[in-house]
Amino acid sequence: MPSSSSALPILLCGLCCILQQGRYGGAVHSFVLPLARTSSSSSSRKAQVQNSYYASAGAPAVDMSAYDLPLDRTIDEWTAVVQAPSSLQEGGVFLRAKNKELFVDTLQYSIRRAGGLGLILTEIAGGREDGIGITIIEEVLGDGNSARVGLVPGDSIVALSVSTTSRNGDVETTRVSTECLGYDATIDAITSLPPPTSDDDAVTLTVKRVRRQPKINVRLQYPPDTDEEDVTIELFAGENLRRAMLTRGIKLNDRLAERFDSGGSGDCGSDGTCATCVVGVVKGMELLSPMGQQEGQILSKKPRWRMACKAVVGYGMVEGDMTLQVNPRQW
Fold first, then answer.
1. Is 138 left (phi over 0), alpha (psi -120 to 50) or beta?
2. Where exactly are the transmembrane stretches of this chain (predicted)?
3. Most buried pick, 34, 107, 143, 292, via CB within 10 A?
């Protein structure tokens, strides 16, 4: 293996492959997907819109790049896990974030192939005989096709696909998976794709990106006659308000609640009928998910109240501060 002072360029299927000393510890491989030179008329740098939906947090209402991490932090946080197959999930080796305050986002980009992608790939974990490892984008070259779509250093390419049209008009799509592959296996997969047939051909890149979870700081105020001091808790976007509060030791059973179910212990199982988990929203109503029809009917005379069991915080992946009154009927 060459030392850090001697890079060995190799011409491989029209792509420049360089073996060099890595910046992040140990000898690593960097793969340069060459630059494309295009006219200014076709060089829009606006990032592609992602049709993302973050489970209960809904579609993002903010620029998700605000939650991206710097490259050094991303390298430290990437890890891989083995997932056993089941009726609900596919088995295999998949990328994960080490820190529970982070999440792995999946993004997809369509990139023009003519002239190359303009990426430098680096292996940060690997050296195994089975080819398993972690390969990331170390650099997005400024004048390359990839600079125009929103890829960032630290992203890991997990799949590539190209579509070709035969002479009789049939469209054939070739897809290769590169998730949790070392450098060599990643390059083998990339170069196995059929070559472009025209200047308009594009490749679809699916990448995974480590991002921090948006946080919501919730100040809880208790009824004056309880003599309990205000408490501030930290929640993550997408958490159910009732479940999040209960797991953090916040009591929600309001003994004065006007029940809309058959009565009982005050724990209806989050059906949204007993109203024992109602909270008063002093500040930050916009950070909660929209009110459903049933909840709206039950709380029609209390516009500043929400059923915690039916509310999701950080809706739209938005961060912010909230102030809630616990057991508002006792105020």
1. alpha
2. none
3. 107
Per the CB < 8 A criterion, the answer to whether 29 and 19 are in contact is: yes
List of residues 6+ apart from 31 with CB closer than 8 A: 15, 17, 18, 119, 120, 121, 183, 186, 187, 190
* CATH class of this structure's domain 215-261+268-330: alpha beta
Q: Which tokens go with 3?
A: 């030392």
Question: Is residue 282 classed exposed, middle or buried when 0-12, 13-18 and 19+ CB atoms within 10 A define those classes?
Answer: middle
CA distance 7 to 18: 6
What distance in Å separates the CA atoms of residue 87 and residue 197, rounded to the nearest whole number?
40
Residue-level length of the chain: 331
Question: In which residue are the tokens 């930290």 written?
Answer: 234
Two domains, one topology: 8-36+58-212 and 215-261+268-330: no
Q: Model pTM?
A: 0.81
CATH code that applies to domain 8-36+58-212: 2.30.42.10
CA–CA gap between residue 107 and residue 125 (Å, rounded): 22
Where does residue 6 rank: exposed (0-12), middle (13-18), buried (19+ CB within 10 A)? exposed
